[in-house]
C-alpha cells in the first residue's frame, strides 16, 4: 500500500473549518447539518467523517441512532424523515454525485420550498464543505479517529 501524506496545510484547514462553521451557523439547524454530513460521507465512503459526524449527531445533538442508520435508505424510510429533511437529503445527493447529471431543477426547487434563500445558500455551502472534508480525508486515507493533520 502506498504511504500517503498526513499533512494538511494549516491555512487550508482553517479556511475549510471557517466555511464549515459559517455554513452551519447560517443554516441554523445543527441536527440537519449533521444528517447532511453523514449522508455525504456515506456516499463518499469517508470513514473518518462518518465516525465524527455520527458521534456529533447522536452524542452531542441527541439524534436517534435509528434515523442515522436509516439515512442510506431515506427515500424508503417512511415518515422517519420529514419533507424538509428529505429535500435536504435529495440536494445532498445531487451535489455530492454531480457526475450523475448535476443538480436537477426539481431537486433544487423542492429544497427551495422548504428553505429560505439564505438558508438554502447555507445548506448548499454545508453540503459543499463536507464534500471537501470527505475528499481531504479519503485521498489521504485518514482512518476513523485518526489524526486528521
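Q: What amino acid sequence fits the structure above?
A:
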Amino acid at each position: 500500500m502506498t504511504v500517503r501524506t498526513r499533512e494538511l496545510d494549516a491555512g487550508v484547514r482553517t479556511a475549510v473549518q471557517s466555511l464549515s462553521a459559517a455554513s452551519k451557523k447560517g443554516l441554523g439547524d445543527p441536527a440537519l447539518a449533521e444528517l447532511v454530513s453523514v449522508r455525504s460521507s456515506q456516499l463518499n465512503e469517508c470513514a473518518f467523517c462518518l465516525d465524527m459526524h455520527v458521534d456529533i449527531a447522536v452524542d452531542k445533538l441527541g439524534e436517534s441512532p435509528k434515523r442515522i442508520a436509516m439515512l442510506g435508505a431515506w427515500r424508503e424510510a417512511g415518515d422517519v424523515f420529514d419533507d424538509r429533511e428529505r429535500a435536504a437529503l435529495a440536494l445532498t445527493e445531487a451535489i455530492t454525485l454531480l457526475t450523475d447529471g448535476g443538480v436537477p431543477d426539481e431537486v433544487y426547487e423542492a429544497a427551495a420550498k422548504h428553505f429560505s434563500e439564505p438558508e438554502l445558500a447555507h445548506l448548499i455551502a454545508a453540503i459543499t464543505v463536507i464534500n471537501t472534508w470527505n475528499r481531504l480525508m479519503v485521498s489521504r486515507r485518514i482512518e476513523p479517529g485518526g489524526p486528521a493533520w
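Q: And what stands out in the fold?
A: The chain is about 65% helix and 0% strand.
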